[in-house]
Amino acid sequence: MSDFFATALSRNDIRQLATFIRKVFGYLDVWWIPVELLLDQMVQEFDEFSYEIVPDDEWDDTSVHADTDILGHTIRIRESIYINACEGSGRDRMTIAHEISHYILICVVGVKLCSCRDKRSVLPYNDPEWQAKCLAGELLIPVYKIKSLKETPSVNRITALCGVSYDAAAYQLKKFGGGVT
Ligand SMILES: [Zn+2]
């Protein structure tokens, strides 16, 4: 749970945003988004944006795999996570998509944040962490592509098509119908 409220966004809102991002960067007809190339495209597209690959031995908190500095417009990624993502690890690809999602939601879309006095009152669609998780899932696992198939594919097939973990594919298939969260 985050210490901040964000402007409310439903899964349906975020799904539309994910499709728009795919369109802008030329991935509308693609199942597998190469997140490492998307980072380079973002550098071209967004004036202030940069990303940094940090050697593992210079990374302090091993429980954190990547982070986003909103004020500095920078995503930092641990080197081993970046390399794994380039080699197709679904979990590490999702880590990078998660940070990209934080950046786009706050710095590009301009989702407003305010500090939260009562954590119990933050609902999922107001939570910046939920929003980034949701956008990353919608971005890497496009429901409109799944809908274009004759049958809903298996979790294993989605895992292979989209380059995501089994858990992420299973979760996204459960959210197939959209909704608020
Ligand atoms: Zn996050």
Q: Features of this protein?
A:
181 residues, mainly alpha, two-stranded antiparallel ribbon, 48% helix, globular
Topology:
Blueprint: E1 4-6, H1 11-24, H2 35-45, E2 50-54, E3 66-69, E4 74-78, H3 79-86, H4 90-108, E5 113-115, H5 128-140, H6 143-147, H7 155-162, H8 166-174
Parallel strand pairs: 2-4
Antiparallel strand pairs: 1-5, 3-4
Helix pairs in contact: 1-5, 3-4, 4-5, 7-8
Zinc ion binds near residues 98, 102, 129 and 132.
Largest sheet: 3 strands, mixed
Query: What structural class do you assign from the helix and strand content?
Result: mainly alpha
Quote the beta fraction. Answer: 5-15%
Measured as a percent range, the helix fraction is 40-55%
Tally of strands: 5
The best one-word shape is globular
Domains (count): 1
Low-pLDDT segments, ≥5 res: none
Instruction: Provide mean pLDDT, rounded.
Output: 93
Gyration radius (Cα, Å) is 16 Å
Overall description:
- The chain is mainly α.
- It has one domain (about 5-175).
- Helices cover about 50% and strands about 10% of the residues.
- It contains 8 helices and 5 strands.
- It has helices at about 10-25, 35-45, 80-85, 90-110, 130-140, 145, 155-160, 165-175, and strands at about 5, 50-55, 65-70, 75-80, 115.
- The protein has a 3-stranded mixed β-sheet with strand order 2-4-3. A two-stranded antiparallel sheet has the order 1-5.
- Strand 3 (about 65-70) and strand 4 form a beta hairpin.
- Helix 3 (about 80-85) packs across helix 4 and helix 7 (about 155-160) crosses helix 8.
- The model has no long low-confidence stretch (mean pLDDT about 95).
- The chain binds zinc ion (ZN).
- Zinc ion binds near residues 129 and 132.
